[in-house]
Design a protein that fits this description.
The chain has 259 residues and is of the alpha/beta class. It has seven helices and ten strands. It has an eight-stranded parallel sheet, sandwiched between helices. Helix 6 packs parallel to helix 7. The mean pLDDT is 94.
């Protein structure tokens, strides 16, 4: 009953947003792009790259010619790697607020939460805008078609799962999704980093002075379970190749055996 009340409240609160979420020129362009991407990679495989410390133990050079989804501040690794991910995703308000200029400069297709569009200049050419997804915090579900509303599931990784399904990928492999954080506290609480970041692959990922939200691992797992079940019912699969990862939702696979 509590969940129903929350969803009802959220639905009412979102009503004023609905016209722009579907009719704003930026969203209409986004929907057009997403239509072109529907099932474009049917039958292929993709890697969703988390940002956990385990990436330090993962040979990312093997991914140079693979389809890859990078998230949040993954771009900090690009100079070292010598290549960038195929796609980029971000949904968290604090990430986009603080790093929207970095994100806009990235060369690959970028997928962001629609509510973040106000961080970008209205003078942008239509061809230069990121692709905006109409995401929400409530109403748990998996959207196989991301042209409509997409549930975030407390992590951008769940957005990437839904995008990958929309694009038709048959096999999706997780790496760097450690599902384990050194920093503890109330889920979704906003904190300001006081020094080097121990929770992600780079010490300056959320370094000193950067605002970020503590993880909500329980809600993330709900989204992951939706992803697992939806992929399975469609005859597709999700595998977890994270080195030492704590997530137990998906079948485990040795990363090096995939190449």
């Amino acid at each position: 009953m509590l969940q129903l009340a929350r969803n009802t409240y959220d639905g009412i609160r979102r009503l004023p947003q609905l016209p722009a979420a579907y009719l704003h020129p930026w969203r209409r362009e986004s929907i057009r792009r997403l239509t072109e991407l529907k099932d474009i990679n049917k039958g292929k495989r993709a890697f969703i790259i988390g940002n956990g410390p385990s990436l330090k133990q993962t040979d990312l050079t093997k991914l140079k010619h693979e389809f890859t989804f990078g998230m949040n501040r993954i771009y900090l690794l690009f100079p070292e790697l010598g290549f960038h991910t195929t796609y980029f995703c971000a949904t968290n308000d604090l990430v986009i607020e603080q790093f929207h200029e970095d994100i806009l400069a990235l060369p690959m297709p970028k997928f962001l939460a629609w509510r973040s569009h106000h961080y970008f200049s209205t003078s942008l050419q239509l061809s230069d805008i990121p692709t905006f997804l109409y995401t929400s915090y409530t109403g748990p579900r998996f959207s196989p078609d991301v042209r409509g509303r997409v549930w975030e599931g407390a992590t951008v990784t769940n957005m990437a799962f839904q995008l990958a399904f929309h694009m038709g990928f048959e096999k999706v492999i997780l790496i760097g999704v450690d599902h384990n954080f050194t920093s503890k506290g109330e889920a979704n609480k906003t904190v300001i980093s006081q020094g080097d970041d121990p929770n992600h692959v780079s010490p300056n990922y959320f370094g000193k002075g950067i605002k970020w939200q503590l993880p909500d691992l329980d809600t993330s797992e709900i989204g992951y379970a939706f992803a697992r079940d939806t992929y399975q019912k469609a005859g597709r699969e999700v595998l977890d190749a994270t080195v030492g990862g704590k997530l137990i939702i998906f079948p485990k696979v040795d990363y090096n055996s995939l190449f």
